[in-house]
Amino acid sequence: MRRPLAWALGLVTMFALVTALPAALQAKSAAPARSCYDCHSDLKKTWAKKFVHEPVAKADCAACHLSHGFQQRLVLKKPAEQLCFDCHADQQKQPTPAHQHEAYAKGQCYGCHDSHASDQPHLVRDGGPATTCFKCHDSSAAEAKLAVQHEPFAKGDCESCHDSHGGANNGLLKAKGEALCAKCHAPAPTEAKHAAISRGGLGCLDCHSAHASSAPKLTRGGTHDPVAKGDCKACHVIENGKTSKRLIATGAALCVSCHPKQADVATRKVPHDPAAKGDCLRCHDAHRGGPAGHLLKANESKLCASCHEKTLAPDKSPVTHAVFKSGDCSSCHDSHGSANEHLARTSDGQMCLSCHPKIAERIKRPKGVHAPAAKLDCAKCHSSHKSSQKGLLTKDESTLCLSCHQDTQKKASGKELHPPFSGGNCSTCHDPHESQHAVLLRAPAGDLCIRCHAQVPRQVKQPVTHDPAAKGDCLRCHGAHGGETKALLSDKPAALCTSCHPAIARKISGPGAHTAAAKGQCESCHTSHGGTEPKLLKAKGGELCKTCHPNVAKDAAHLHAPVQSGDCLSCHDAHGGVAAPSLVKAPEKLCLDCHEANDAKLRAKHSDADLASGKCLACHEAHGSAGPALVSAHTHPGFGPKPDCTRCHTAVGAPAGTNLIAPAKELCLKCHDTAKPKDLDARVHDPVAKGDCASCHSSHASPRKGLLAQPEERLCVQCHAKVE
Predict the structure, then answer these.
(1) What does the alpha-carbon distance between residue 573 and residue 594 come to, in Å, rounded to a whole number?
(2) Whole-prediction pTM value?
């Protein structure tokens, strides 16, 4: 009995839970959803206007927008030009008018309408024409500043005269010509006002501006004076009290009666063809003109282009003359006739100066003016209309400048080139019109150079400075356009430096020249602009020498005193000495500056040999050695700590070359049989054959095996200089 009851209670509990679940879900879904205004609360106030877009009024943002979530990027459901017509499909169903508003045709509804709310009917953007019509019609925006304005135009009520989306008439006018004006200006009163004027069939807009004017009664600016005065008889024949189409004179004869300055047009050297033919109406309207003035039928660029299509045709030239771009052709050309080619107003660049007054002022100076500028020959360098080069140059800078300055290119040929010069950027350093500095430089040479070489000012602030650098005389050492080495030196380094240091010139051409100095590698040891060490050295004495001679006495146990103190110049001249390697004296004399030849102790160590005529370096190392007394590492038997000079010298007198126990060529052969050929085909070295052992070997000691007198590469070339 208990089990069936338990099952029944379980079923009842499960049923209760299942039936309660939808109610719980319904309760959860009934919770209010978040709206856009929860985040965009400020917009709710912004859009509280007289006219609100229906989806906005219903807070139905999703009608137009996709949800952006956390992307913070507002996305329309469709492109704007399609989205509006989802609701305003009736606009598309209407027949396409003959003339459509360009913005409407492109679907740019938002150009005129606010997509959310406005205080203007049809959600037209607030702010009047300034925020709508004038955004595209800038000429109308300019008219809004004139003193006399048409009442609808002044109120910003463009729709009084124009259809907003499209219409049957040009200019989107709601009616043609006089019919439109008659809606506000009844014909009878209008005729009465013009009773004293012979209208001659002229329409309202022939004399009046539709929007605004600086003249009373909206009279068009630029209206032909007789027309403005209603004096038709000034040009037309009056028949039966009415203006006829017949003129009182023909062609140009009529026009020059009031414009006598143009009477000689046909006789000018270069007349404008229509003017020469008396065809004034080719360019001018007899009654009224447009915004361009002078009764021109259209603005100058459009008018001139009707004959000069190629000149005014659009192209891809990146640089256009400002007046050409604005269509102000008459700034440079006389529209009727000229004495100059292409109807130019002046024969030279005088007309250019009216727009370039700063250049005009500069080129008046008595000196320092670029020759073409001084002659007002602007066309020598500049194009008049368009160019592919900045500054309207006729060619790229390099080609243009070198067309006159060929010598500059020749001088720089084969040299390292200054980047601005090689890049054709002459105007980086030179002013193309005028300069009071040498060779048209934009600034004194020193000031100009540091604009790119900013490290030089820091260098010349060092304790020791190179005089030309300190004075900013960069061209004393460097070539402006090209030079030797990457430093653009104005001459070979050695020749350049010795032009100011002639004493060094003699040293580096002598027998003991320092290799680096002889090669003109002055910057191996010296800084060129400024430094901290005397004589512009890159480092102190011995430390500087080690940069090229790191192995000198490197592992020596015993050092020559000057080497130990880093006083290399006690024995060597930095540029060149009387003997190699750059010794200040011949070796035998140099040693005696510190070592007294007659010193008893010193003579005793040398078996009382004559030290005054001795060759110290035949036995001793100049810089350092492994053994004491700087004796070379490799010694001849009988020479060393316990010398036995009698192996080569007689016991009579001090050892010398004069008391050998046998002639030199025989003496060596007592111990060395190298002179004997190994076989009949063997070739014997010439000095060996002659017994001249001393030409290659030292007789006492040497740092090299075999007692070689010099390193092999030096030793061999003494006789075999031409061997490669």
Answers:
(1) 17
(2) 0.64
